[in-house]
Amino acid sequence: MKQKLINLAEKYLSNEDPSHDINHALRVLSNAETIVEKEGGDLEIIWPAALFHDIVNYPKNSPKSKYSSRDSAEVTEKILRELDFYPTKKIPQVMTVIVEHSQSNGFKPSSLESKIIQDADRLECTGAIAIMRTFCSSGQMKRTFYNDHDLFCEERVPDKNNYAIDFFYDRLLMISEKMNTDTGKKIAKSRGEFLYLFLEQLKREIT
Predict the structure, then answer these.
(1) What is the radius of gyration, based on Cα positions, of the chain?
(2) Between 126 and which of 25, 52, 159, 191 could a Cys-Cys bridge form, CB atoms 3.0 to 4.6 Å apart?
């Protein structure tokens, strides 16, 4: 079942945004499976939720962005209902998990599977991969790298819509505090240390 779902994800996921492509989905899947090994969880729900959670991905600076998870859940439902190998009774749970994974909408997970997928996706927002994704999105949004008057947000509120580095102070550096599972927290804390190393090196190069 897992491989069949991966094959479908490769078919359906767009490659227009490298930070939300099939590789992102596969990394989230891998993160989720790592957490499941320690925390438990239903893999038949985890697999499709991880692979299709971003099947609809509106630009972050679009008014429709807040509907990405809802629309992803609806598209995923249509895909799963056409499959003869996926248990129909689990489709509503998959939809709920996808809706609840959203960080920007502030959903609180209502199940272990939702906690795991939310954590697995949040792990993409810390560590080396988070830096790559942040600057990828910044290029698409035409967002400036940094505010040259106050690069590290020491005397101003972070403005993530206009400066890439501000996204670190608005979200990336706080990821470990927002994780749901003990396993997710440990991984996020380890990855988060690299973000500080990056910022320290950036400071040496620019200031």
Answers:
(1) 17
(2) 191
pTM score of the predicted model: 0.92
Report how far residue 59's alpha carbon sits from residue 98's, in angstroms, rounded to the nearest whole number.
18
Give long-range contacts, CB 8 A cutoff, 24+ apart: 18-24.
Answer: 18/133, 18/136, 19/132, 19/133, 19/136, 19/137, 20/54, 20/57, 24/54, 24/124, 24/133
Q: What is the chain's pLDDT, residue by residue, as a tens digit (207 residues)?
A: 999 999 999 999 978 888 889 999 999 999 999 999 999 999 999 999 999 999 998 777 676 777 788 999 999 999 999 999 999 999 999 999 999 998 766 778 999 999 999 999 999 999 999 999 999 989 888 899 999 999 999 999 999 999 999 999 999 999 999 999 999 999 999 999 999 999 999 999 998
Burial track 28-66 (b if 16+ CB lie within 10 A, e otherwise)? bbebbbbbbeebebbbbbbbbbbbbbbbbbeebeeeeee
C-alpha 131/C-alpha 201 separation (Å) is 13
Tally of CB atoms within 10 A around 179: 21
Domain boundaries, the chain: 2-206
CB atoms near residue 168 (< 10 Å): 25
Q: Are 158 and 166 in contact (CB under 8 A)?
A: yes
Give the pLDDT of residue 106. 72
